[in-house]
Amino acid sequence: MIWDDTGFLLSKSRYNENSLISEFFTKNHGKISGIVFGGSSKKIRNYLQIGNQLHINFNSKSENRIGYFKLEIQKALSPIYFDNHQKLSCIISSMSLIRLLTAESQSNTKLFNLIEKFYSVISNDIWLKDFIFWELELLKTLGFDLELENLVSKEIINQKTFYVVKSKIEKKIIPNFLIDKKLVVDDLNTLLKGVNLVSDFLEKTILKPNNLNYPISRIHFINTLK
Question: Which of 93, 161, 171, 226 could form a Cys-Cys staple with 221, CB 3.0–4.6 A?
Answer without folding.
Answer: 93
